[in-house]
Structure formats: structure tokens, C-alpha cells
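Two proteins, back to back. First:
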Amino acid sequence: MLNQLQRELPEGLVVDAAWLERHGYYRSLRQTYVNHGWLERAARRVYRRPGPELSWEQVVISLQTLLEYPVAVGGRTALELGGLAHYVPRVHAEVHLHRDRALPTWLPTLQLPQRLIDHRNTRLFDIAVPELTSSDLSAPRTDGDVQAWARGGFVAVSWGQWNWPLMVSTPERAVLELLDELPARESFHQADVLFEGMVALSPRRVQHLLERCKSVKVKRLFFFFADRYSHAWLARIDRAKVNLGSGKRALVPGGRLDSTYNITVPEDLYAV
């Protein structure tokens, strides 16, 4: 059984007691493995094979592959991983996760330096998060899978010395996820700085995601910021296919009403 565990549970990844029991590692056997140092407890009823210090990447990869949760790294975190948000200061060390179903209740009990922020994907998009399995840890997916993920605004990037897949939102999707956080968790200034540097978005992907986005606020904000910099990809977006709703959206108390998109934005965005 120990050899089987070493094959099924890669070093450093985490699983819960339910996963271990499904694979034949019942309570007494788990305790024996813990006593011998072959397993260690990461939290109550959560285990891992001893390895490097537990990181948020290992936790998310475990959720995506071994535990088969449809969850992706999104928003600000995805932009940071893509090198697009490194010049925007972070107030808190957070990792933003976008999921299709509830994540395990033990997740907040893990001792991580970062805070895992949980977002319900279906609130913003009608596109499902791609599902990975344990086989993805050792065998790359076909080009067809990769292309389908990209159309939905996702990409699997390689992480660590093992090149494990980490499902992440593409920049086109991640920026929409970040705009959803305005103005409560992100600032207009930060979004403005981000858009200035977004010179290489895919217009086809932007078009698809805007048409599938459920939030009128997010879509109006996207066009508001995109208009300020007029990157080349913007001219290839068919705005007539994007539903911007009706009525005004008061996003900033005392802000200026942008007459094009009927949203209130900070006055200082108009400063020369």
C-alpha cells in the first residue's frame, strides 16, 4: 500500500481523509503512516506526503487534479502570474479562486501565508471552469483541450520542477474578474494602470468573453477603460453584440457620470 500511495499521491500535494478512504487508506492505516513519517497532517483530516513547505500553488493543483474541483486561479492573481500586475501594489497577500461548486470547508484551516479568496464563477460567466484529473499531473492534454480552454478564457500553465498544470484565467478573462471587484476590493486607479499595459489582448477572446459575461457593470467598465487607451485590439471588438443593459450605475458616490456608459467614476480619472 505504501508503494501505491507514493504513486497516487505526489510529494507535497494535499488530499483529505475522504480521498484517502476512497483509495483504501482507512483511519488505522493513515495513523500508521503518520507515525512513521510517510504522511503528515496539513490540517484536521487533511494529509500530504512530506515535501517542500506547503504553498498555495500546491493546494490549488491538489484541488484541481487529485480532488477534481472545477476551480481556476483568476482576477488579480492570474494577472500577477502573467506579469501584468507586478507594478500595481498589493494591499494584502491574496489568491483569488474562481470555482463552479463549493470548495472544501477545510481549505481556510490550512496554514498558508496567503488568504484564499473564493469567487463563484457562475455569477459572472456562463462558461464552466475546465476540469482536470490526476492523470493531468503526468500527461499533457491534447491541442483540442487546450484550444477549448483558451476559448473559455483559461490556460493551464506549468508549475514547479514537476511541470504540474495550474489552471489560470487568461488575461482577457482575469481583467473582467478584477473589474467585478470594483470599487469594493480593487481601485479605479489600479484598473486604469492595468489597462494602460494591456496592449496584447486577443480580440477574439475578448469578444467571446464579453458576450458571455453576465455583469452589465463589468462590461461597461471594460469599455470605459479600454476607450481611454485605444489599444489596437479594441478596433476589432463588435460592440453591437455586447449587451450593456440600460439605466445608470452609481459606482462611486459623488463621482462624475460618464455619459457614454452611464456609470459614475472618480473625478480624478479626468485630470490631465
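And the second protein:
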Amino acid sequence: MNPPALETFGPRLCICGPSNSGKSTLSVALGRKLELPVFHLDLLFHLPNTNWQPRPRPDFERLHREAITGERWVMEGNYFGALSERLDRATGIILTGNEPTRSLFRYIRRTLFEPNRPGALEGGEDRLNWDMIHFIAIEQPRKRERDVELLRRSGLPMLELRTMRELNACYEAWGLER
């Protein structure tokens, strides 16, 4: 795989994709390489020091709006309810892979062994959760094509990384460090 130059995506990148597909780690690596602030939508959506309790909707919308008004950023996460507003400001999209089995493995590994992973909720406690396993294995794959179409319709430069191998090729080609 020979990915396009990072400059193709401009200074405001949206990193979207299934849970546990490498969005947070990629965002941190891109932010470091390009000297861009990184926003994790999970952290804007959930209250710190809780077990992933959502913020009141108006608070999330305000935090999201404040983040996207910046001139330069990397923002990872989906939250398709706020997607159109985000895409109106974005200059490029990177869509991470669609490998449910690998995502399940990554979910189990990070939940049990990576408490300080990128995108972890401050003061939150990750636990294996059957609803999350169902979401990763069943619900996300069903929504994939709809989500891809929404992103494609934006007309923004977009890179679709279907596998972890393709994602790793980007790390190498762009000189990113995890």
C-alpha cells in the first residue's frame, strides 16, 4: 500500500472507524507528527471519573463545537449525530479498518491490560461488557456501509484503511511512532 502524503488531508483531520480499530493511537501519532491538538470524542462525550457516564447532551455539543472551531486538529471518534457539523470544518478523513474479530481481540486486550491507553477516560474503569462485545461483533459491521457512504458524500479527501495491515503501512510510510 502506498498511502497519499499526509498533507493531502489538511490541518483538520477526522479519524473515524469501528471501536478498537486503532483510531485513538493513530490520532495521537498524527498529532505528534503534525503538531496538532488531538481530541478524543469519547472524552468529550463522557464525564471523567465515572464509569463512562454520558455528559448532558448540551455539554457535549458545546465541547464538540469548541473543539472544531480551531484551525488545526485531529479528532477521533464517530458520534454521527454531530458528524455533519464536524465535516463542515474538517479538511480530511481517515477511516480505520473493519475487522470485527481483531477489534474484539483489541477490546479484550486493552480492557484487561492497557489502563493508560490513548483515549482512556480519566478516572474511568474499563471492564469487559457484553453489550460492548455485541456492539463490536454484530452492530458495527451492520452499520459499516452506511457510515462509509456518509463520509464519502462529504467530498473531503478520504483514506479508507480496511485492515490493520493497511494501517501499519501508513505508520511506516508517514514515519509515525506509536
